[in-house]
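Annotated sample (chain length 309).
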Amino acid sequence: MTMNRLKALTAAMLSAAMMVSVAACGTTDTADSGSGDSKTATTGYDVSSIAKDDELAKLVEGNTVKSGELSVGMELSYAPAEFLAEDGKTPTGYDVDLSKAIGKVLGLKTKIVSSMFDTIVPSVGTKYDLGITAMTITKERMDSVDFVSYYRAGSTWTVQKGNPKKIDSSDLCGNKIAVQTGTVQEDEANKIAKQCKADGKKNAEVVSYKRQAEAATAVATGKADTFYADSPVAGYAIAQTDGLEALGKDVGVVKEGIAIQKGNTKMDTAVQKAVQKLMDDGTYMKILKHWGVESGALDKAEVNPTDLD
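Output written by the structure step:
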């Protein structure tokens, strides 16, 4: 990679990170209920024509944090799932579009609430109604919240284009790994570091960032050797920067879910049926295709699925 290209890549990645930082410095409650009109890469899918389902709407009457509103916690630096548009304040991405679509079906106005990833599960049911943030369903998380499955994604190791540091994903001892705090990728990276130590090899240093954009920036600038993230997120970062590349094939493909307050069976049912309705009428697939992430589509939404793969 030439010095000029590295500088350009660094500037692009830092710009994305700064965009997120600006939002984080202001209020954490970011409302957005419509799709943009411009035909840019960050314009969301238009959900305005989705009709309310009266039967499902009855299930959520008096069952939300704020009446008439569906509040959704998201970590807004996880493109293309959820991130900020060019204006630095408008939430966009396929999770944002799906959240709006679910709100339309339930007859509620969707409100996106910007949150740190590791605070979302504890806040569901109190600060906001749902957590929709490319969250992997795990047995541990199901001890705290209910889930409705809606997507499948793997994990991808990403390095600078051309892999100048000759990173080998099968042996990451001696490397610096960037991850986002609270993710399954952070857990897996820590296991790798622990194994390196047990085997008497060079230490693998795990650097955890609150925002995914910061992890990607660390690799782009050479401060970290590789970052580990959900496959659609890594793929989007690679496509946008033209200076990163995937290292090997995706691993650990598992289901992602919408987090709901534990034991709130009415909300569980309402969300599951709303997502299934969107799957059945084709809206769900149109949203995924709009963002180029249809490869992870499911055809069945389930409450607390037992098959997580």
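Annotation: The CA atoms of residues 75 and 115 lie 5 Å apart.
Annotation: Residues 1-40 have pLDDT under 50 and may be disordered.
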